[in-house]
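Q: Convert this sequence to structure tokens.
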Amino acid sequence: MLRTTLDDARLLEKAWALPSAQRYAPLWSQGFRAICGPTSVANVLRSMQLETGRNPFRRFGLRAMSLDQIVSESAELLPSPWRVSAVRPGSVDELRAQLRASNHEHVRFVANFSRAPLFGHGGGHHSPLGGYLEDEDLAFVLDVNASFGPWLVSPERLFEATNTTADGSTGKTRGLARFER
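A:
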């Protein structure tokens, strides 16, 4: 297996100590009624102290969702003054700027990425970001697939995974759903 992510216990412990990551504890994993997109948004809503089920959306939770669908359906659920937007960084430096923002109290992210550039196989996936270890230059991905679990990745590798085309008909890339107050 191509290994471009880190699961170093010491670094994961440091990442879980980030205030941004602690908002997600305990992290919900995707399950029978909701796959990665809805479960990721449910974790974000819970990090805002909102009560929700694993599928907060009105529609069925076992469906593939694009970044734009996540943004659109999440917007219907957010209390004022929260808002959500799609961010498609055009470079690693632009992504790194978003990662820095993930450590702020008033910002949350769900990353939409392809597993293939990271693990050598797999398709599209959504997971919340738990923060950014700036000194180590590592993003903390709170993978909602329990078989993967949370992991750390360099901005370069995460950019490669988010800068993939999700929908051939629109040509839009994956990216980040940015929740901001």
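The two ends are 39 Å apart (CA to CA).
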